[in-house]
TrEMBL record:
Residues 25-97, 105-182, 196-287, 295-379 form the Ig-like domain. The lineage of its organism: Eukaryota, Metazoa, Chordata, Craniata, Vertebrata. Residues 235-254 are annotated as: Disordered. Disulfide bonds join 460-470. The keyword Glycoprotein applies. Transmembrane segments: none annotated. GO terms for cellular component: external side of plasma membrane. Keywords: Cell membrane, Disulfide bond, Glycoprotein, Immunoglobulin domain, Membrane, Repeat, Signal. This is Fc receptor like 2. It is found in: Cell membrane.
Amino acid sequence: ILGIIEIFASFADWVSIDMPYYAYEGDQVVVRCSGRDNNKIKRLTFYKDGAWLPAYYNTYIISNARPSDSGSYYCKAGRKVFLFIDDTEQTRSVWLTVRELFPAPQLTTRPLQPTEGASVTLSCGTQLPADRSETQLRYSFYRGGYTLRSDWDSPEFWISEIWKEDSGYYWCEARTVSHSVSKQSQQSYIQVQRIPVSGVLLETQPQRDQVVKGETLVLVCSVAKGTGKTRFSWHREGTRESLGEKSQRSQRAELEMPVIRESHAGRYYCTADNGYGLIQSEAVNVTVRIPVSRPVLTFSVPGAQALTGDVVELRCEDKRASPPILYRFYHENVPLGHTSAPFGGGASFNLAVTARHSGTYACEANNGLGAQRSNVAVLHVAEFPPKIRLMNGPHHCEGRVEVEKEGRWGTVCDDGWDMKDVAVVCRELGCGAAKHAPAGMLYLPVAEEDQPVFIQVALCNGTEETLAECEQVETFDCGHDEDAGAVCEGR
């Protein structure tokens, strides 16, 4: 018996356990048991805290260590010692501590209470142990059920612009590149602050209260403060109609009116609202200025026919252009002078004519929006007065017919007076076509009693250039109650 005891004693501590005393989360831990002669081992079992562990041959592997794997490890080996005698030996116990590779990250926000439109930095903070500082981590960031960024190599994530609808719960996740260790932060609620709109202002581009007809006008609505999506609306005073509406994340918006008409003149305002109530701007008055068009030049003398010494009024007019208007007058393209119409309409220039004033005339209108010149008009100035005239009519192409003989003016009797006679008178005066042959009594006052009646009957065939060329019967029994009259076209 003593010999058998000696044999067993010689086999003592023939099996041993080999494993680390500590590891980090995610590490692979190998627990290995072996004897002096592994070929003699009949059965080898592994235990943790007294509980059996499944193992393959002489190795038990923890592929992804967790803190729960911490504990006391040992193994047992059995073999045949002598004849029918088996021996079982247990190794010493080794305590394994699985350390935390890194704590659960904490999500921090800069700034803590962001306002709309601002940038926000999310930081996913954690700490590796000194002896594992080279371990690479990847970070992911989440909001609600959405992934903001996945497998990011930086613990910080930058949001360029954040809006009120982005308010919610945010969290982050840190994990190793191999995904063996992964930890999430607690959820943090981010409340994005919205600033109500204020200081609503309406401006025009070009920046003036007057716009030229046909140009483009841009109405710019802006706010001094306000964040988020703002609804801008443009209106004209006195109407309920909205000219336009835009919703955008901006502190200004533009409404373009491509072609301005006269009817667009009036007062305009805009409103802005980002959910805290409608704010209205002050009204801006828009005046539509009308550029000058081609003005019309007219002469005060009928038929553009004047006599030496006459005062001729040159009238230049653009009835629709916006005032003030400056008119310039030209004779044969040489400036005569200028005059202004401060309240719009036309303007006149008076000219005492001589024979040298015959020729072409034009005028030019300019109200600061570009000059326009009239069509050319021709004025004829006769150097010697005619031997015939029409008196007391509205113009010199209508009135009582008078002729001149030996320096005296006398009338013509209406005996046989007809349109052929009137046609000759109109031709001689340069007054255009004949229109009527009225009685001279219509043009008051009647001729003086001592004024002679030079012609009793004019026998014109209508083709003569002057009344003097017609056959005539000298007067013998005609009074001024029978004086002849004439009406010419006069233009």
